[in-house]
Specification:
Length: 398
């Protein structure tokens, strides 16, 4: 796709996300009722949905878009605007023994990534960014025979990766370095094709910046976890995004990664229980403190949920320096938590219509940033969303 078309898509998405931010920006955990009371038809529709229907809709956001477009026709564009072509896959033959120790889903993602990546005979040396134990590097060097420099800050992972590479006679060199260090800069400068599969937030952004700074000839990146940034607000990369009217917080960025396909029934039940407990506790603390603000609690071990709602609330009160009274009405607040969970899910149904739009907007910012610095860029889906919802692949060449 040409830079003009990417820019056109980006501008249209900017307009829609800005115009309808009142629909996608509210944070479900913070609301005791639907925030769209003036949009009566929307609230009436949401009230008709059973839990199973809401789960189905969240998994098929195009159906949500279609319904919302009956009231706001401009939203009908979202489906077309976020359609990304499937990559042309080429069979990559990799010895199955190289996948030893790699979780099955991750190995399948690596194989899909490598088969979707445009081939470059001119590549001399690959850079594996945020390498971990070098799973991706194993695949690329096995497929191409080219050497790989694997950059990973955790020394223990580097040692394990290096040992495996030496046992399998793979031309891989691990570097236990901070990606931002001067030593890392020298490694980066010696490579001409940077690779990253699901490098989080600031990390994959740094790869793009380092690649540009060192005039790297090619980059292939699948972004992930856009919300993992150092600042409280998203810092746009491209000049187009920098001049856009859309300002995004960390909480806003989470919308782009809210789709998950790996959880089974047990995981879903566990999530519902935990969220209900958190919302029930929040109902109590609002009454106890005379507050109308949501009070977030820290993460907990899932095993703590087996002790019941009352114990959860005692733990939550202790975390926040509050005192749970002896006459705490466990049944009432648990019921109120269940009611809040329904509201939360209704909000998530609406927000699901904007998930891919938010992710695509962020990815297009990266695409335009690379084009701005002289790269020819393609954007494709490297695998089916059932393998991973984070299936967008940016490939850039000088």
């Amino acid at each position: 796709m040409s830079s003009l078309l990417y820019r056109h898509q980006f501008r249209q998405l900017t307009q829609i996300l800005t115009q309808f931010q009142w629909l996608w920006r509210p944070i479900p955990m913070e609301h005791t009722q639907l925030p769209w009371q003036n949009a009566e038809p929307l609230c009436q529709w949401l009230a008709t949905l059973e839990n199973t229907q809401m789960a189905a809709l969240k998994a098929h956001p195009d159906a949500v878009i279609e319904t919302l477009a009956t009231w706001w026709p401009a939203l009908a564009q979202l489906t077309d605007l976020t359609t990304v072509p499937i990559a042309n896959h080429v069979t990559v033959n990799i010895n199955a023994r190289l996948g030893v120790g790699v979780p099955g889903r991750k190995w399948a993602q690596i194989q899909a990534y490598l088969s979707a990546m445009p081939k470059r005979d001119s590549t001399v040396r690959y850079l594996e960014w945020c390498a971990g134990k070098g799973y991706l590097g194993r695949g690329i060097t096995a497929a191409t025979g080219k050497p790989v420099e694997s950059l990973e800050w955790q020394a223990a992972l580097c040692e394990q990766g290096q040992l495996f590479a030496e046992q399998k006679a793979l031309p891989m060199q691990f570097h236990p370095l901070d990606a931002m260090s001067e030593e890392a800069a020298a490694v980066i400068a010696g490579c001409d094709h940077g690779l990253a599969l699901h490098a989080c937030g600031d990390l994959h952004v740094q790869l793009l910046k380092k690649a540009i700074a060192t005039d790297m000839q090619a980059i292939t990146v699948s972004p992930c976890c856009y919300q993992l940034i150092s600042g409280e607000r998203y810092q746009p990369l491209s000049s187009e995004a920098q001049h856009a009217s859309l300002v995004l917080s960390k909480a806003d960025l989470k919308l782009a990664v809210q789709e998950a396909v790996t959880g089974g029934r047990r995981v879903c039940r566990q999530r519902e229980q935990e969220v209900t407990y958190r919302l029930g506790f929040d109902e109590w603390q609002r009454d106890w403190q005379g507050s109308d603000q949501y009070l977030p609690l820290p993460a907990l071990k899932k095993s703590q949920l087996t002790h019941g709602f009352g114990e959860f609330c005692r733990w939550g009160a202790e975390q926040k320096g509050l005192i749970l009274p002896a006459d705490f009405d466990e049944a009432e607040y648990h019921t109120r938590g269940q009611a809040r969970f329904v509201i939360l899910e209704q909000m998530n149904v609406v927000k699901s219509a904007f998930r891919r739009a938010m992710e695509y907007w962020l990815v297009l910012d990266r695409v335009l940033f690379l084009q701005q610095h002289g790269y020819r860029v393609t954007l494709t889906q490297f695998c089916d969303r059932q393998l991973t919802p984070r299936n967008l692949l940016i490939h850039a060449e000088k």
